[in-house]
Amino acid sequence: MKRSRLRAIVAVACGAAAATMLWPAAAFAAGPAAHTLCREEAAFEARAGNPPLVLQGRLKRTIAWGKLPVSVKWDGRKAGNINPSLRAVYRGQTLYKLVGLVDDKDPKSFNVTKARKGYKIQFICSDGYKRVIKSRTIVGKKTYIIARLKNGKPLREGEGPYRYVGGFIKPFYGKDSARMIVRIRLLF
Fold first, then answer.
1. Cα 83 off chain centre by
2. Rama region for 26: left / alpha / beta (φ>0; ψ in -120 to 50; rest)
3. Can you give the residue range of the structural domain that contains 7?
4. How far apart are alpha carbons 32 and 117 in whole angstroms?
5. Which of 2, 39, 41, 50 is the most buried (most CB within 10 A)?
6. What is the pTM (predicted TM-score) of this model?
7. What's the pLDDT tens digit per position in 164-175?
């Protein structure tokens, strides 16, 4: 069955709200109300093996796997002597842009003032692992990304659906990276 046909079935199952939903990549930039998942669509994404990324802060936002932009890359091959599993080119979206969607009432910008004052960003992974970082660490960091592609392909099971990687990874110290991320929560 074609993907467009499945989307039409999901739209009927979800009701009028889904019928007006934006499906193309423009939905990511259209604001929080433009792309929310109903139960049936979330179930469809889970069956496809790529669950949505849930962002929680002052606002709550759910981004389908295919809607997360892959415009930013981090090249782990140039990071020095790190864990061999991280020696790859990862593509995804900068963490500060994703946090900016839910850090305050304005989803169009990252609140630098609030981030510098300090709050915690918690990555919740499907294997039960929880990693917490400080908001101050991501201010101005364009290579700290939430990746969904590794060497141009979706992250494999055991590493994906999303992974936190970037310039913070130092030789012999890859513990800061988080894999199998399903939710990002801001703790104020």
1. 22
2. alpha
3. 1-48
4. 25
5. 41
6. 0.73
7. 999 888 765 556
